[in-house]
Each structure stands twice: as C-alpha cells, then as structure tokens.
Amino acid sequence: MKKINMYILSILIQFCLFVLFRTNRWNVSGLQNLKQAINSNQPILLSTWHSRFLYGTYFLKLKKIKNLWAISSTHKDSQIMAYFLERSNFKLIRGSSTRGWENVIKKMLKIFSNPDTILAITNDGPKGPARVAKLGSYKIAKKMNAKIIVVSSASTKYWKLNSWDRLRIPKPFGTIYVSFSKPLDYQDDRSENADRLTNFINVCQDEIDNKTMC
Question: Per the confidence metrics, is the pTM higher than 0.85?
C-alpha cells in the first residue's frame, strides 16, 4: 500500500513540476555541445549539482534525448524520485556512493561500453557535501574515455528547500537558464582526486548564476 501511495504522490509532484516548468520561459545555450558529443561515438557523463538536477532532467525530457541513464538510491525515500526519472525517459542504476556502490560501478562500466550512452550524474549526491564532486564517477568516466559535459542551470524565480543541497524548484512566470558546456579536458589529469571536475562544474554553474542576476 505504501508503494502505491508513493507512486500516486510521485504523479502529483510531476504534475506540479510540469505546471511550474511550463509557465517559465527557457533560455538554452550550448546545446550544440551536447549534440556534437552524441555524434562523437563516445559515451557521455552529464554532470550537474544535486541542487539543480530538476532543471536539467526536465529539459532532457522535453527534448526527448535518447539512451539516458541515471543513478537512483536504493533508499525507500528515493522511490518517488525514481518514479519521476523513469517517467522522464531515464533508465535507472540502483545504488549510490553510500549503498550498493559495487553494483553501480559494474553497471556504469557496462553501459559506458556502449558509445551511445548518456549517464546523468549529480556529482555531489546523494548526501554531499554540496558542490564537491566525488571521485568514483570521474575515475570511471576517464577509464572508459567518456566525454564529460556539464549541464548547469538556474532560474530567475525559485524556492530553495532547507535540505543539505538547498534544492531549487522554479517558481512560475520566470526564466529558466540551461547551459551545456564543452567537454572537460582531463587527459593530462593524473591526480587521485576530483578537484578538476569540481572546479569545472562550479565555474559553469557560477557563470549561469551570474546571468540570472543581470
């Protein structure tokens, strides 16, 4: 019964998000970077911060981008988001950096062997610290020669939740900005940390945040 209730709740949440996103204007830049990467015969790691993932997820749904994957936590509280992602054309890898990580690694390696794959990651998820990328997905992307592209996003009007990531939800009748970066150049990175990815995502996100304040 509880699972049914969560499914119904997820439908209501998705309807509310549909209304919120549809009442906003969209300002999109860098989409050609994603299209070029899709045509490059290499898998793609699409990176964003947990606080902004709703924007990118909804935009990819609107554009009907194919071969999308995402990581969904096995925690029961994450089931609502799993339903949302599945109805947004995402296939799911179940697990996280804190639970079921071995299964996630195996699945990532398998799907990255397909050059048509796009794996969307919230690189600071599932529990932070906020805006600090974890090393695991970065190492796997490098190993499988995946293109790392950042999708950064912001809106002129939004609610900010009192959660660890300060999740942002757009208010109606504003403008939503979405930007796709050029691929991260990581070929000469021999470090055992994800600082380069952290800095890259933060620079991209700061640039689009500054646009909303102009």
Answer: yes
